[in-house]
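Consider the following input, taken from an annotated entry for Mop domain-containing protein (Kouleothrix aurantiaca).
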Amino acid sequence: MQLSARNQLPGTVVSIKEGAVMAEVVVQLVGGPEVVSAITVSSVQRLKLAPGSPVTVVVKATEVMLATND
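Applying the prediction step yields:
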């Protein structure tokens, strides 16, 4: 699948916390930090996500903020 988003980061699902409608999916990026994604429970089921599943984190944003300690 090709996407317009350039920020595609490979990783592995570490954990999934399901609520009534939404799920919190924690992904360990290859060689980097963890990223947390909030997606619907139905998406977790449709994608057959489970701890250990390889995934690609796709970030598409029109605004990305940067901060310094100054």
